[in-house]
Design brief:
By secondary structure, the protein is mainly beta. It folds into 2 domains: 10-233, no CATH class; 235-369, Immunoglobulin-like, CATH 2.60.40. It has 5 helices and 24 strands. The longest helix is centred in the middle third of the chain and has 15 residues, at 117-131.
C-alpha cells in the first residue's frame, strides 16, 4: 500500500498548502497549518464537496460567447485527502492510476513542499496525459460549465479538471499547443483552448492578495467555484475554388490565378480583413479541377474570390468575381469556368503566399513562375 499511495510526513504536511493548480483560478502557498481547535473551522474530510465551473470569468470579454460553446467539464480524482493528525489540514495520497505523476520523484516530501505554479502545471499535464492517454480513465464526475450548475457529491481530494466541447469526441477535443496538452470547444465563430487544471477540495477563501493558504481566516469551503481561463481563437472553415476549362490548346500549361479577400466584422462593427491570399490552378487538358483551403478562413467571414489571371489564351465564361460566406456546416465553394479565346500566345503566372504577422497580412512571393 505504501508503495502505491504516496503521502507526506506530518512535518511536511504542516507546510503544505491545499492547492488549486496550474493556469490557476487561484493559488495556494505554504503557510503552516494551524493546530486543531474546536469550532466550525475544523476540517471535515467526510463531508461531500462540490465545484461549479464557468467556461470563463463572468463579465469578461469572452464569457458570453464561451457560454455558447457547449463546454462540459470532466473531473478526475487523482489523489485522496488524508487528514494530518493534530493539525487543521490534510495532505494527499496519490491514487494508483495516477502514480506515474511521481515516477521521477525521489523525495515526495520535498517535491510537494517546494512546489511552484510551474510545478503544479506540470502535474496537471502529467495527470491529463494519463487521464486522456492510450487507455483513457473514466471521469469521476462530469457536468456543464455554466457558472450555475454545481457538480456535487465529491469526496475530499485533488481533482483534475478537463473542459471540452460536449459535441466532440475524445480524439476531436484533445490537442497540443506550445508543447502542452490542451482541450478544445467551439462556438459558432470561435475556438476555445483549455489547459488542464487542478483543484483541491475542500479549500479556503483567498486572502487580499488572491493567495489561498490553509492558515487563511474563515472556515473550509466545501462548495468551490472555478473560472476557466481559455484562449479564444477564431474558428476556421474551408473554402473550395473550382475551375472548369474547355478548349485547351497547345502544350503549354494553362495557369489561372485567384485573389482571395476575406473580411468580417470586428467587435467595433467595422469590416476587418482576416485573410488575403492568391492561389493558382494549372491545367494540361480540358476538365475540372479544384483547390481546397482547409480550416484557413474564419467562420462567418465574407470572402470575395476574383480570377485575376486567365492565362494568355483563355477567357472567362463565368463571372470573374464571386462572393461566398464561410460556414461551419459545409465547405464554401466558388466556381469559375473558362474557354479558349482563339489566340495562340504563350504566358504564365506567379503564385503569391500571404502571411499574417498578428497585425497585418504581408505578401511573401514564392518566386515560382507557373
Amino acid at each position: 500500500m505504501e508503495n502505491n499511495r504516496k503521502t507526506l510526513s506530518k512535518r511536511g504536511a504542516r507546510l503544505l498548502a491545499v492547492l488549486l493548480a496550474a493556469a490557476l483560478a487561484f493559488t495556494l502557498a505554504p503557510a503552516g497549518s494551524p493546530a486543531l481547535a474546536d469550532g466550525p473551522a475544523y476540517i471535515d474530510l467526510e463531508k461531500a464537496c462540490s465545484v461549479t465551473v464557468a467556461p470563463a470569468a463572468e463579465g469578461s470579454d469572452i464569457y458570453d460567447d464561451a457560454m455558447t460553446a457547449n463546454v462540459v467539464v470532466d473531473l478526475y480524482r487523482i489523489a485522496d485527502a488524508v487528514k494530518v493528525d493534530g493539525y487543521d489540514t490534510y495532505t494527499y495520497a496519490v491514487r494508483d492510476a495516477y502514480a506515474g505523476i511521481l515516477a521521477s520523484v525521489t523525495d515526495a516530501e520535498a517535491f510537494w513542499n517546494d512546489m511552484t505554479a510551474a510545478g503544479w502545471s506540470e502535474i496537471a499535464q502529467s495527470a491529463a496525459a494519463i487521464a486522456l492517454g492510450e487507455t483513457p480513465q473514466t471521469p469521476d464526475k462530469s457536468g456543464p460549465a455554466d457558472n450555475a450548475t454545481a457538480i456535487g457529491e465529491l469526496p475530499a481530494g485533488l481533482y483534475l479538471i478537463i473542459a471540452h466541447g460536449s459535441d466532440l469526441d475524445l480524439d476531436e477535443y484533445v490537442d497540443e499547443a506550445d508543447g502542452k496538452l490542451v482541450t478544445l470547444a467551439y462556438s459558432t465563430y470561435y475556438k476555445y483552448v483549455f489547459e488542464p487544471q487542478l483543484i483541491s477540495l475542500p479549500t479556503k477563501a483567498a486572502d487580499d492578495e488572491g493567495v489561498i493558504m490553509t492558515s487563511n481566516e474563515g472556515g473550509w469551503i466545501y462548495d468551490a467555484e472555478v473560472n476557466m481561463k481559455p484562449a479564444q481563437e477564431l474558428n476556421m472553415g474551408d473554402l473550395e475554388i473550382e475551375k472548369t476549362l474547355s478548349g485547351y490548346i497547345g502544350s503549354d500549361d494553362a495557369v489561372f490565378v485567384f485573389q482571395i479577400e476575406a473580411t468580417m466584422k470586428n467587435k467595433q462593427g467595422e469590416d476587418e480583413v482576416v485573410y488575403s491570399n492568391a492561389v493558382s490552378i494549372t491545367f494540361t487538358a480540358d476538365g475540372t479541377q479544384s483547390i481546397v483551403l482547409e480550416r484557413a478562413i474564419p467562420i462567418g467571414a465574407t470572402v470575395v474570390v476574383t480570377e485575376v489571371y486567365s492565362g494568355s489564351r483563355y477567357e472567362l465564361s463565368s463571372d470573374g468575381s464571386q462572393t461566398v460566406t464561410i460556414s461551419a456546416e459545409e465547405v464554401a465553394k466558388a466556381s469559375f469556368s473558362n474557354k479558349h479565346d482563339g489566340t495562340f500566345t504563350g504566358g504564365g503566372g506567379i503564385s503569391n503566399r500571404f502571411v499574417y504577422d498578428s497585425t497585418t497580412w504581408q505578401v511573401n512571393p514564392t518566386d515560382e513562375v507557373q
